[in-house]
Amino acid sequence: MFGYITINKSEMKFKEFDIYHAYYCGLCQSLLKRYGAMGQITLSYDMTFAAMLLSSLYEPDTDSSKCVCVAHPFERHPFVKNVVIDYVADMNVLLTLYKCEDDWIDDKKMFRACFGCMLRKKSFKKRCVYRGKENLIKDKLEKIHDLEKEGCTDIDLMSGLFGDIMGMIMTPRDDEWKDTLSELGYYLGKFIYILDAYDDVEKDIKKGKYNPFVKRIEEPDFDEQIRVILTMMMSECCKRFEMLPIIENVEILRNILYSGVWERYEKIRTEREKKKEQA
Q1: Residue 234 is assigned to a structural domain of this protein
Q2: Nearest 5°: phi and psi at 67?
Q3: What are the C-alpha distances in Å from 228 to residues 104, 120, 194, 200, 268?
Q4: Res 106: pLDDT
Q5: Is beta strand 77-81 parallel, antiparallel or unpaired with respect to 63-67?
Q6: In the chain, fewer beta carbons within 10 Å around the N or the C end?
């Protein structure tokens, strides 16, 4: 849905990339099996990270297989499947469902409204299982929407609400790792929200849409401010990650957290600097 939590492919071994891609395809196949083709549309790199991290922590029984799909129609490619990936697929659809409803309220996007309605029908049984998590997602997104209508510029408050959602998604079990995973997800969610706002600020200004950075973008050190905030969020996220007893796929996960998450930021910052020079 956002796609900011991804790998730095240039610093990854071929074998590691194949493993990461198997999780990406595994999440895609889980979405297809549980929700049909429309479920696949919700696939994101952010949730692939969640699937790999939680699978690596809990080490559930995992099967490997091969398949062909629309994206790779001429070659069978490997994918993995387990109960954790299925859980992440359910959370991905829940989050997308309520984001679609929020987009309809904000922008009256008909496609998003129709897509949300279809997801609601497809996900009825799963939403009954995750009623508490569904209510939290709905509540937090409604609060975000209300604060956006008020023009709230408190980035800590706004990003914290989305952080609460990610914190909940990252805690599939009530166990000894729940608090650490919740905090990891909280800071990861704040990072995603802030980077998304930073990415969209100029576009939102042109369209007259809400963005928490509308009043700050003209400040001479705006880009540096964002870099510092993002660094703080990812630093706290990485601290929690290192507390987890993860051995499997740990280097891939570190590639994402210490390097991959900055790929999009650097691209945004570079493009903004070029525009300033041209102006």
Answers
A1: yes
A2: -155, 170
A3: 33, 39, 11, 18, 15
A4: 60
A5: antiparallel
A6: C
